[in-house]
Amino acid sequence: MRLDPRFADFHPASDLLEGRVVLVTGAGDGIGRAIALLCAAHGATSVLLGRTVEKLERVYDEIRSAGGPEPAIYPMDLSGAMPPDYEALAARVESELDRLDGLVHNAALLGELGPIEHSSPEGWQELIQVNVNAPFLLTRALLPLVRRTATAHGHASIIFTSSGVGRRGRAYWGGYSVSKFAIEGLNQVLADELDGASGVRVNSLNPGPVRTRMRANAFPAEDPQTLITPEEAARGWLWLLDARDLHGAALEAQVP
Ligand code: NAP
């Protein structure tokens, strides 16, 4: 597998996202970290949402030492966050940044892989909470600001992060696979609702196999050097954040 040429050959100017605000969940590690860094390198103010403050602070420092716009750190454990927490987040983004051009739903848990009949109910619920309920609650709380940003500036983007097992079920991928099917459903329903003049683009993107902790946990015997890096994968998100004509699509970041 290799990065889709649309993304590999995308070399935008470093001010592509200047003045724009992009919130990334799971911004402390893996693909989310790479997306936040790449957005900042192209001028965006990144809102770094994640559960491990030290990781978010490291990303903050990396952005600042590279000369990027000052990011905002928003520590939040999506497994325990309740609706008022999302409302508080939305109020803070609105009052401090006054716009949201990109909402990147990236954070996810892999959970335990194994047969459905051996899946623990507690593990299943946590997985659905982080992978499905959190993107729903975050979208619901932030949509007014995203819509207002699109009206004022002509364009805004919501991106859901999918997986191959969210498009075709596979044995032993349990709640993770089911949660990614739900994400595809959320993508389709929201895209259909926002079709028309809102200016909000809604799409899902499957990164394919990427060299991260999650991938290593799922495939411990695999040689990570055979996989694309999070930095390469992040180019797909940058491309999609800028894409004005794409709406309701389910994209693949990699091609055979
Ligand atoms: P990763 O390296 O495990 O990173 C996941 C991120 O989500 C981390 O920043 C993690 O924070 C955060 N997160 C997990 N649980 C959270 C919670 N309860 N609250 C807040 N943040 C939480 O995974 P990745 O490989 O980068 O995956 C990123 C996305 O791509 C996921 O949606 C995944 O399903 C999808 N994906 C990945 C691959 C792949 O090959 N890597 C393939 C297909 C799809 P901490 O670091 O603090 O734990």
Explain this structure.
- By secondary structure, this protein is of the alpha/beta class.
- The chain has one domain: Rossmann fold, CATH 3.40.50.
- The protein is built from eight helices and nine strands.
- The strands form two sheets. The chain has a seven-stranded parallel β-sheet, sandwiched between helices. Strands 1-9 form a two-stranded antiparallel ribbon.
- Helix 2 packs parallel to helix 3 (about 55-65), helix 2 (about 30-40) crosses helix 8 (about 230-240) and helix 4 (about 85-95) packs parallel to helix 5.
- The N and C termini lie close together (about 5 Å).
- NADP nicotinamide-adenine-dinucleotide phosphate binds near residues 31 and 50.
Strand segment count: 9
Gyration radius (Cα, Å) is 17 Å
CATH topology: Rossmann fold
What share of the residues lie within helices? 40-55%
Bound molecules: NADP nicotinamide-adenine-dinucleotide phosphate
Helix-strand category? alpha/beta
Q: Specify the oligomeric state.
A: single chain
Order of helices and strands: EHEHEHEHEHEHEHHEE
CATH architecture assignment: 3-Layer(aba) Sandwich
Mean pLDDT: 97
End-to-end separation in angstroms reads 4 Å
**Uncertain segments of ≥5 residues (pLDDT<50)?**
none
Shape: globular
The main sheet orders its strands as: 4-3-2-5-6-7-8
The CATH homology group name: NAD(P)-binding Rossmann-like Domain
Major beta-sheet overview: 7 strands, parallel
Question: Strand portion, in percent?
Answer: 15-25%
Present the secondary structure layout.
Layout: E1 2-3, H1 5-8, E2 21-25, H2 30-41, E3 45-50, H3 53-65, E4 72-75, H4 83-97, E5 102-105, H5 121-153, E6 156-161, H6 174-193, E7 200-206, H7 213-218, H8 230-242, E8 250-252, E9 254-255
Parallel strand pairs: 2-3, 2-5, 3-4, 5-6, 6-7, 7-8
Antiparallel strand pairs: 1-9
The structure holds NADP nicotinamide-adenine-dinucleotide phosphate.
